[in-house]
Sequence to fold (235 residues):
Amino acid sequence: MNSIWHIIVTSTPQIVAAGLKYTIPIAIISFILGLIFAILTALIKLSPRHGWFSILKAIAYFYVWLFRSTPLLVQLFIVYFGLPYLKISGIFPNGIQLDPWTAGIATFSLNTGAYCAETIRASILSIPQGQWEAAYSIGMTKTQVLRRIILPQAARVSLPPLSNSFISLVKDTSLAASITIIEMFEVSQQIAAQNYQPLVMYALVAALYAVLCSILSWLQGYLEKRTSRYIKPIN
Fold:
């Protein structure tokens, strides 16, 4: 028992350090970039424009379909291990070679963007059409309506599912170990290989992930209360 406790005490700082250095930064950067992809994709899919814009819509639909229909681990392997073999004469003669950090962030961002795009699209569609018409009646342009009226309300509606996506992304960063990023799970694997206590190490890293996600869940609840403080409760 003392031996197990010693392993936990000595290993926890190493795993936490990896979380602060890699896990959390990867999750935050990937989520911010993913949100940018998501907003652009959602607006393109909702646009009534036709003609050349139909090409952009087709790309947006294909992007969402592709990343929602394939496993995240497979996507990581394709980006990190597969793209170096995509050799195009004159453009990529040696293939597309990305370091683990760049490959991980790129994959996580694109994957998150595909899922969040549908969340944002549904949130925008949930805003009553009458608000668009009322805004147009006082002379607002479409861009002004989106920026001042629709998107702020859609942000509040989409907050819970987007928060869930971020929490899932934090857990999914453990897959980055498969492309040699030394995040929390990779550190636990390395320590387990040294002390031959895989059960203790994997249980420890699971507990640390649980603590981190619990903090994020509390923060989600706080943000929901703050953004809904002007809404009257249903009796």
